[in-house]
Amino acid sequence: MGEFEQTVMLAILQLGDDAYAPNIARHLDATIDRSVSRGALYSCLNQLERKGLLRWRLDAPTLERAGHARRFYQVSARGVRAVRIVRDSQIMLWRGLEGILGAAK
Amino acid sequence: MTHASHSLLEPPRWTHAVLRFALSCDAMRDAILGDLHEEFLHDLAEVGVRRAHIRHASRTTAIAARALFDSAICRSWVSTEPMGEAGRGTVSGPANAAGGSTPAVLQRTRAIVGAATFPLLALFVVAIGVVVNTMMFSAAQPQSPRATSAAGIGGVALLAACVAIAAIVLCVGPRWRRKRLRGA
Fold this sequence. Notes:
- The structure holds two protein chains of two kinds.
- By secondary structure, chain A is mainly alpha-helical.
- Chain A is 56% helix and 10% strand.
- Chain A has five helices and two strands.
- Chain A has a two-stranded antiparallel ribbon.
- The two termini of chain A are 25 Å apart.
- Chain B is an all-alpha fold.
- Chain A binds chain B through residues 20-22, 37-40, 42-43, 46-47, 49-50, 52, 55-58, 61, 64-71, 74, and chain B through 27-28, 30-39, 41-42, 59, 62-67, 70, 75, 77-80, 82-84, 91.
């Protein structure tokens, strides 16, 4: 899993039932101060979906969306396992570096 | 409210046409159009009509460009089954992979664009080489003859490198694409 894919997966996990593309982009904008290109975001969501790390469901179409349905994403069980593996391996790598990097914010 | 001012409060129609061309998957396109519409209305209230239109256009362009690029490298945006619907086929994943309700003309155009990607890329690299070469020559002409000859050697070397890169792109690109298409 790439760095951007990890970020998107974590944002989806944090948003819970409210994870759809514009919300994911806004969440990333607000939390990590990173403006996300819509092209990159949809491409990433497509890749994660293909790998079986994400699942999706459609909401009822609304007038606010010109009659188009909202597509909500959820991390699949396989996705949760993948995120857990990445987290565990990264924790191992981060361990003992406080002396060089300082304490986390 | 006049018709003109009303139309400014709606996202421009050309964006639909662009996304219809760039995205083969109906389910994916529908959701993206909805997202863009929602964000347009949000921007309209937040930053005004002009900036909302600019943002909408830039988002649409970014999505279309990325979708076409992904399609060229055989990573088309195709929907899987929604959760809880696997096997029921309510959203036509496999059908959309083959095009779904997308017209055959669009399918063919997309295939041509995909096949032309690598020759266009090669042409682009050579064009850059030619432009930089010309710029180097024209910049060096008023200087001393020594500078001109140095610029000449540099320019020719750069042009040769660009031609070599273009040749590699032309040779390797289509083969790699065919290999990916067979694997997909």
